[in-house]
Structure prediction request, 233 residues.
Amino acid sequence: MTMTVDHAPATTRPGPPRLDRTQLRQAQQDTLDTPRMKYSLLAKMMFKPVDLMYGKEGSYTKFAMLEIIARVPYQAWERMGYWAVHRHRGRSALARRVFERIVEARADQDNEQWHLLIMQDLVQRAGHKQSLLPHRAAPWLIAFFYYHVSWVLFLVRPDWSYRLNAEFEDHAEHEYMTFVADNPDLDFVPDPGTYAAEYGRYRSVADLLRQIGHDERTHKLDSLEAMREPRVR
Ligand SMILES: [Fe+2]
Ligand SMILES: [Fe+2]
Prediction:
């Protein structure tokens, strides 16, 4: 992956690479050309209620909901990581590797937090109303479920926890890229740039969403790689 940037650079931060316009279009094509992963029952248990409440089609409100849930496994891993660092305190190499994982989990959490803020901003600009049950209570319930599933899985079988997150990220990646492909007018809607200082400014809302979609792809690939690593916990 290349690190070229042709728009206003944001503050240097760890996390997924920023892509230029050509790379963003290519990233969209790559996602659309890649079949979705085979989702497990647990993953479907989270996707189904979201589809029922917000519809199968993508929308800013649906994405905001997904972003609330997306941070959860990274929070769970971060917390479990601190416990593991303490456990391995006598074995410096392992403790260091666990701590590196914590740093990665924090960077990914921050990245998901920007996605959420950007989505909430787009929801407000579009003038969509958010009501209590579908927009506050439901995400909280699903996030609560996902958080506990994530840390229990991580304790028992870390690779299952990473696999579940990879499925979640794969789903998000495809949702964003399909939405952009289905709404070509978004290429003519300028990026409002509300969080440009932190996330960069893009030529259009379409490019902004493509960048977020590519971040999800990066998260997915990181989780798939973590799955193959020897147990670090
Ligand atoms: Fe995200
Ligand atoms: Fe993500």
Summary: The chain has a mean pLDDT of 88. Residues 70, 112, 169, 172, 216, 219 surround fe (ii) ion (ligand 2) (CB under 6 Å).
